[in-house]
Design brief:
heterodimer; A: mainly alpha; Aspartate Aminotransferase, domain 1; Arc Repressor Mutant, subunit A; 2 domains; three-stranded antiparallel beta sheet; 59% helix; 12% strand; elongated; B: mainly alpha; 11 helices; 3 strands; 56% helix; 6% strand; flat
């Protein structure tokens, strides 16, 4: 009798989490606002207070598909053991877990020039303590790209949220760079290349 | 150490100040150097020149391949579901043609006509009297109501049967004072304020320092004044 009851409880729990994972998938994959991703407090409201556990299960499920649930905290420094408040303020995204091949990027609408330009702009800004004049970055890009493409590309990076520009024509790293790019790994790879 | 070493040689306090300033400047240089060292020790520190050199030497393909290793793009979908599509069709079918909708919301045509000054006053578009005219009349009233001492208590002058009228009189009084038709005499100890009219409007603006005197004309104050008057 106890065994049957245990199995029933187990099934009920499983069904509960399956429902929650479906809901979390809908929330995270589809764009609800201008920016993609969902805030922690929004997930808490829709999924309940055990949303970090639901996201953990979803993340292990997505691993097979080479995807992951990415958490971006408000704090600049990486957070080891986040508090409930830090999680509520964080933004959650679904990102690629592994990396893309050059062929795949073409299907996403990115030419090799665009990617090389973005890598250059981001690493230049990182090396200048997170802020660099647009002119300086453009000059570096002009080294490899035709002049007419530099401005178009730069505006595209800003529009997509990789870079931000202030009224003094200073460039910063924007929200998408913080979410999608492993900045430390990028710098390490660049410095480690034999040239 | 430095202070202790040179302390016996200081004769004037100015010398101490100068040396203290020099030490302060030295400390700020050390602080800036310490910030720089801290930044250099962070994991993201890179020598800008070294990095620039690396970027210049790498080909576009090499750069793109490097970037692809650290790039994990966000997955974001925008898609309409069959349910929302059905809802949209339902809405579209029930939506009236724009020509009919515009007919409903178009305003009724009204005949144009002439209005009178009295009508405009009634609608509070025009004031009954010009403001300056009204102010002069108010000044005359103040001159008539003052005692032999040439002044009247603020509340005795401003207070009226209704609160709204009291507010209006307080508003006019403030202009009498600002435009130099009258002045306020404040007795702080007795907590009393008097209004004193001038015989001729005095131009005080720009001649001496103007001060603002806040006077509360709340319902409570007015009720208190009314009670006092009735008592």
């Amino acid at each position: 009798m106890d065994e049957v009851e245990k199995r029933r409880t187990g099934l009920r729990r499983k069904a509960y989490y399956v429902r929650k994972i479906k809901r979390a998938t809908h929330l995270l994959f589809y764009k609800h606002h201008r920016k993609p991703g969902v805030k922690g407090w929004e997930l808490r409201r829709r999924l309940g207070s055990d949303y970090p556990k639901v996201l953990g299960i979803l993340d292990s499920y997505l691993e097979k598909l080479d995807l992951q649930v990415k958490t971006v905290f408000d704090e600049e420094k990486p957070v080891e053991k986040p508090t409930v408040q830090q999680l509520d303020k964080a933004r959650f995204y679904i990102t690629l877990r592994g990396s893309l091949t050059p062929k795949e990027t073409k299907m996403m609408g990115w030419r090799i020039d665009d990617i090389a330009g973005l890598a250059t702009a981001i690493s230049c800004i990182i090396s200048k303590k997170g802020k660099a004049p647009r002119e300086e970055v453009e000059a570096l890009l002009r080294n490899k790209l035709p002049g007419w493409r530099v401005d178009i590309n730069m505006n595209r990076y800003i529009r997509s949220g990789y870079l931000a520009e202030d009224e003094n024509k200073q460039l910063y790293l924007d929200w998408r760079t913080c979410t999608e790019i492993d900045q430390k790994a990028l710098v390490d790879l660049l410095l480690g290349t034999e040239s | 150490m430095v202070v202790r070493e040179y302390f016996p040689e200081w004769e004037l306090p100015e010398e101490l100040c100068l040396d203290a300033e020099a030490i302060h400047k030295l400390a700020s240089v050390i602080k800036l150097q310490s910030d720089w060292v801290k930044h250099q020790s962070t994991s993201l520190y890179t020598d800008p020149f070294l990095l620039e050199e690396k970027i210049r030497r790498l080909s576009k393909e090499e750069l793109a391949n490097l970037f692809l290793e650290v790039w994990h793009p966000i997955v974001e979908l925008e898609q309409i579901s069959s349910h929302s599509l059905a809802e949209a069709i339902k809405y579209w079918q029930s939506l009236l043609p724009i020509s009919e909708r515009w007919l409903k919301t178009s305003s009724l045509e009204t005949e144009t006509g002439a209005t009178t000054r009295e009508e405009l006053i009634k609608q509070r578009i025009l004031a009954e009297k010009a403001f300056s005219e009204e102010l002069e009349m108010f000044w005359e009233e103040l001159k008539q109501r003052v005692s032999d001492a040439g002044k009247i208590r603020y509340w005795d002058f401003v207070g009226a049967d209704t609160y709204s009228e009291t507010i209006k009189r307080a508003y006019m009084t403030s202009f009498l004072v600002t435009y130099g038709y009258a002045t306020l005499e404040v007795h702080r100890l007795e907590e009393e304020i008097f209004v004193k009219p001038f015989e001729k409007p005095a131009s005080i603006i720009g001649k001496k320092q103007l001060i603002s005197i806040p006077i509360s004309v709340s319902v409570e104050e007015w009720t208190k004044w009314k009670r006092g008057e009735q008592d």
